[in-house]
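Discrete fold record:
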Amino acid sequence: MRTIFTLFLLLVSATGCAAPRADLWPYWQQSNETNTATIDHSLWQQTLDSYLVAQPKQTLFRYRAVSSSDKYDLDRYIRKLTATDPRRYSKDEQFAYWVNLYNALTVQLILDNYPLKSITKLGGLFSFGPWDEKLVTINGNNLSLNDIEHRILRPIWNDPRIHYVVNCASLGCPDLQPTAFTASNSEKLLEQSARRFINSAKGIRVSGDNVRLSSIYDWYGVDFGSKSNLQKHLNRYRQGQPVQLNNVSYDYDWALNEAR
């Protein structure tokens, strides 16, 4: 029985890494492009300023150091967002709203369950991570992290750079940006995030003719297109010699992105 149970756990872990497909939730497509109002993300910026540690090769988060009052402010920020109907705002304002909400919820998940070695340890005995858990309610709709990423962000904006800006609290993930997203800075941060990840060892590592890519390019290959299209995408941002995707392997580090 123990052998069967172990095999079952391995199967769950393996299938848990399979990426959900983009599946539009039409309810969230509505926007009001005439609305020039902005959503306040200053509390999220306050959290980033206080606890994010941007290093040359890796951005880390000081989970252990977060004070009770700052945990409260993060919760207050999330509650303010969930009390807001994003459909009443412009598409650009909505994009910043969803990215910041996703990242703030991820940080809150880690804080609520700290200490832990990996976000994949959350979500229950037979789950690989917490991504399907319903974490917030907006306009009467219960949403998970997977809903935000795969049913809202990916299908509505159809931009592969989204994968560079939603952070899963892991060392293999594209870095959590030190600046909160806004309608006015999103394009700049998308470009900056793509360039930083693609020029990092966790994004691409070349050894002779062998290229090790982040598993993101495997899990979400449909968003990046054919091998030729992916190669063009990578070389658009890559500094130095262009990469040739001949002998490709994939890797990802799920260890917690914690600053010690």
Remarks:
- DSSP finds nine helices and seven strands in the chain.
- The first strand starts at residue 52 and ends at 54.
- Residues 1-16 have pLDDT under 50 and may be disordered.
